[in-house]
Amino acid sequence: MEKIKTFIETHFLNPKDDDISDIISLIQDVHTENLGITDFNKGTLAISDDENENSVYSFSIPNEGVSKQKIKSFISKLFQGTPRWNSPRTIYNAAPPPLQTTIAVKLLTALYNPNLALHTASGKSLNTEQKVIKAISKYAGWDETIAGGIFTWGGKATTMYAIKLGLSRCCQNSSKQGVKEDVVVISTDAGHPSHISDAEWLGIGSSNVIRLGADENTKVDLIQLEKTMRSCIVEGKKIAAIIISGGTTNDMIVDPIDRVIKLRDSLVKEFSMEYTPHVHVDAVVGFPWLFFKDYDFSKNEIGISTPAINRIKKVLDDLKYIDQADSFGIDFHKMGFCPYISSLFMLKDGRTFSEKRKDIFNWPFFYSMESSRPADGPNTAYIALNTLGIEGFQRIIAHLTENAIHLSELLDKNEEFELINTMCQGTASLFLPRVPKGVYFENFDTEIKVRNEYASTFIERLNKLGNPYYIDKIPSNATGSQQVPFTSLKTFTMSPFSTKESNEEFINFLKKLKKEIDADFNFGNKQNNFQEEKHPLK
Questions:
Q1: Which of 3, 272, 323, 345 has a beta carbon 3.0–4.6 Å from 158's, enabling a disulfide?
Q2: Residue 330 belongs to what H/E stretch?
Q3: Treating both helix axes as pointing N-terminal to C-terminal, what angle do 194-201 and 155-170 enclose, rounded to 10 degrees?
Q4: Exposed, middle or buried by CB within 10 Å (0-12, 13-18, 19+), for 445?
Q5: CATH-assigned architecture of domain 155-283
Q6: Where are the domains of the chain?
Q7: Cis bond leading into 71, ω under 30°?
């Protein structure tokens, strides 16, 4: 029995001294092993040939645990092929290099392992959660003594909370009896596909999600919104939630929050509705732009370039009205520069969560979707806010915007590529590789198939080269505010180490890669059996 006890104890923190030197040493050893095979001129960590689909089926649970020395290799392989988010060569999506302070907090949170189901097992983390919620409420313009919120398992969950609370508002017995009435959710074509899947999970049904089109400014079409709401009200349908954008992923387009609220309120009054449809702003990507709401652009003390100021102002023009919404979502693991997962659902009237105000501080499992809930979200968000402060967020958003504008300009001026999202207000660039001169297609269907395969070839070549640049692709007709029928390539400037020089290096590399692809890509006389992969944004 003593041998068993000794074996077990070697794998856990010794309560006599809580010494973590072995853990630190293990982390350092694994990271050093990864660095040994890392090419710093590439956007992802290296990946060995044996890490493929076959390796999934070759694994079986060992009879005896492996030694401490061998486990390092097991841990190291877990991270092969992952993006190097800090690298300017990683321009993949709205995924950040986490702040070093938030990485440390993430590791320490795992060490101390607080559970936010209730106060007795959470240490100070529940209090930290409320600090973040109240501070953001105050900054957004809400009454922080009434406002509430909760950290949850992702941006999809923030929208689910909004729909669920809206459902409880329009169908008061739904929590006990289920969805018995004809309920709809109103969203937009530019909105995230999670709006649809949330309705599926909540029993409302995907066919009851009405996706509205955009106006000439690529914002929600208010005329169509009014017609849709009127039609639903007259037909006796209940509107659980109206979900609008607080910054789309690809273009950072913000819907006119104040005008949507005004329209909703006028229809509630006109029809003497017994409930008020819940308006949620999906600001998981765009929220940090709100940190410019008190910035004096005329003084411009941090020296932002004029083109970047113009972009930021356009986002802020509508985002500053976020205080009029019933709720909004934030992903700190996106533009908040925290590790996964740190998502926050914010609610203007926290009393909707719980009539007993002490529940918010002591027993959140009464109103949360989760029972067991990690403290990673609030802890890392709190440290990120303290590390950067308002001015720090202003500086990093400005820096990324300036470099994204420069990259877009390089793409726009280059004859080898065509910039798509010319109305972008954020840090993404969507572009098409131009088909060489002299190439003609029999018909439009053929052109679509060939050009989709053409764009996908760029991603495939980059992958085979070990991702010297890690970029994304967007399926046809899924590019956000400006739809195109072809698969496009996408960059998303997120690294604080991005520069004009790194942009120019990328364009030069891309031109060289295109020349190589054009030399052996068959644009004509193809079988055209290429089938574009399905994508949730489509």
A1: 345
A2: strand 327-331
A3: 50
A4: exposed
A5: 3-Layer(aba) Sandwich (3.40)
A6: 155-283
A7: no
Q: Angle CA(199)–CA(204)–CA(208) in degrees, nearest 5?
A: 85
Considering the chain, what is the average pLDDT of its residues? 91
HEC string of 365-405 equals: HHCCCCCCCECHHHHHHHHHHHHHHHHHHHHHHHHHHHHHH
What pLDDT band is residue 4 in, cutting at 50, 70 and 90? low
The tokens 């109240």 sit on which residue? 134
Please name the helix (run of DSSP H) or strand (run of DSSP E) that holds residue 162, with its range, or none: helix 155-170
Q: No. of H helices and E strands in the chain?
A: 16, 11
Beta carbons of 19 and 9 less than 8 angstroms apart: no
Closest CA to 335 of 273, 275, 290: 290
User: 293-321, pLDDT tens digit by residue?
Assistant: 999 999 999 999 999 999 999 999 999 99
pTM of the prediction? Answer: 0.93
CA atoms within 13 A on the CB side of 198: 27
Helix axes 376-413, 100-112, angle to 10 degrees: 150
| Burial of 8 (C-beta count, 10 Å sphere; 0-12/13-18/19+) | exposed
